[in-house]
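Sequence in, structure out.
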Amino acid sequence: MNILQINSSAKSSGSESTRVASNIVNKLLAANPGATVEVRDLAANPHPVLDEQALQALFTPAGQRTAEQAARVALDDALIAQVQAADVIVLGAPMYNFGITVQLKSWFDAIARAGVTFKYTENGPLGLLQGKKVYVATSRGGMHKDAPTDTQFPHLKMFLAFIGLTDVEYVFIEGQGYGPEVAAQQKAAADARVEELLA
């Protein structure tokens, strides 16, 4: 089993999404002693944003790219290769201002490539990263689950399905801005959810 952990919090420490994602990975390792783990911290090693230069590089045929363009595309290629090689993906995805972090958005932009991780067919788009298990740990300052304010969850669900990742389990760590008592209750509930998923 190859496990890929993606941390997308801007925090280098004290991130609940990272804590829970790491907890999931540790339990997977305990159940699968021969498993390997790759951890990519998108804050410590941020991926460049999708700008005009990146788009020009991506849409230039490989044989015609400049050295600079080839190097830029290679950065995305490396992320795609990591995802393709993974059997299990564990994603730490905190909610910032009702959405995903800029770090995670850059990762999404890098791994979504037509003809590689998805393709268009006469019946619509088809995700090509099939057969993988995904766990998503998402922390929030407020209480947003199943509420109109949760625009992050639909985005995550739609994007992952678009590239073929449909076997997804979510762990919500809510109310982290509601004071110590509520925060502790929500952390405990999240930990119990992890236990349930990986018992």
